[in-house]
Amino acid sequence: MSLNLDELMAKIRAEVSARGPAPSSAPPQAPAAPTRPSAASSAARERVLALLATAARYAPVSSLLPEFVGWGLLKRSVAVPLSRAVMYLSRFITNKQAIFNQAILDAVRELIELASASGASPETVEALRIQVRRLAIEVRSLQAAAPQAVAAEANAPASAPAQVAVAARLESLAVRMAAIEAQLARLSPAPASQERAPEGVTPIGRRSRSEP
Amino acid sequence: MKVAVLTVATPGGNLGGAHRFYLGLEQALNAVPGVTAERVEVVSDERTFQHVEESYLRAYDLDLSRFDAVISTKAPGYVVRHPNHVCYLLHTMRVFYDMFDAESDATPQRLQQRALIQQLDTAALQFPRTRAVFAIGHEVRRRLLEHNGVDCEVLHPALALEGLREGAYEYALLPGRLHRWKRVDLVIRAMRLVRRPLRLLIAGSGEDEEALRALAAGDERIRFLGTVSDRELLDLYADALVVPFPPIREDYGLVAIEALACKKPVITCRDSGEPALLVRDGETGFVVEPAPEAIAEKLEYFHDHPDAARSMGQAGPWSLRDIRWEHVTASLLEAVSA
Q: Which residue range is the domain that position B222 belongs to?
């Protein structure tokens, strides 16, 4: 049996189009940027909630006794009151830590509520903003380094490796920033970021990327 | 040479083994002089068959023409169109392959969907659309040959987690996603038969966490640690006595590799896929029947003989000596440059 991928994909495209507008129903040679569907934010939200549940279990440090799993009855009968005494004595530190932990947990929960109201997961928005800030810093440091690389290779052949490498890196970073800012614009009604791609660096495409 | 490493993310993002694999591959390619590798991510949503179809279209419609070469890694990424495309396969969508019977009803509609996906994959992985196909393990290669008639070379990916070390030998550790295909329940059931004060630490989270917690309820020796950071994971590995890892037909099993690298013996099962090939029975761990009794026996053995755990562990890193990123990148780059 001869299989033709293009024919199979054309068949799928027709089915998807018949069902209604879909994220990837663009013509083959003018593809839409791969974007995370709305399920992304709900899945991320579930992960945040799971992490919060873990954090909540360990937040009250001033009242968490060690478990002494595997200790014999005799050892436990000594260890438990002893550790209670140690914990009591260290409460002037651990109480503050527990209050801090609870405050952080409450703050994160508030953030989730706020973001839910605007339709985007706080984890997603904040992570993207952090990525943009990091990328902007990287771009600036590369731009600062570029003149030195050019000067160092003033007498080198036209395709000096350092210049090429810096230019390629800048281009790559600009593309990533554009992709992330586009995601932010979709997710958040607020201005996507204070950080913009530096002048002279033109985004040449839009792609998503998992890690900064 | 500008190389795109085409990765596939679930809507919730990449976590665990695949994420580490992508990171390691990108870093290893960038370490090769003259190569600039960049990850390009496409989202694959498998909630319904309609979403699966749309995911295939997203990958097919990607324009990666500004790259000199593309290395795809996972379904549906390999349907990408690029004249210099090789596939380094993590896995196809297993619900349409070896896990079909376990996950789906064999209705005519489901069977038709399975046939379509297998046709798509087979067509996509043909030369010249895909210049070469590599698999991360023999298990993946076997499946590809059996279902798609596509043969490939196996390249075991190396580790991307740095700082793995040997510490004390104290507890049984089971890290990873808490999903039914990982069969964590087998180890919890085994613990019911273990008559020793051996602790079992389960690190990770996932769809089946609640059910597994319920299954382990009442056994104080079993602790669920939730999601842990890489640093915490390194510490946990360091002081583990043994790593029981009994998944069903696992593609690769990074957990087993990481444990062996930390000089920890691994208990895996005969039907666990690649880990059953990577663990040398009686030398770097045990390969047992997928039954709680068999796992329990080996857990008790290591508890009673920590020196055996230590001496088996010493052979772990040696058994991994040929698993190197340099081998992987050399083969991949040779294929795209040919």
A: 171-319
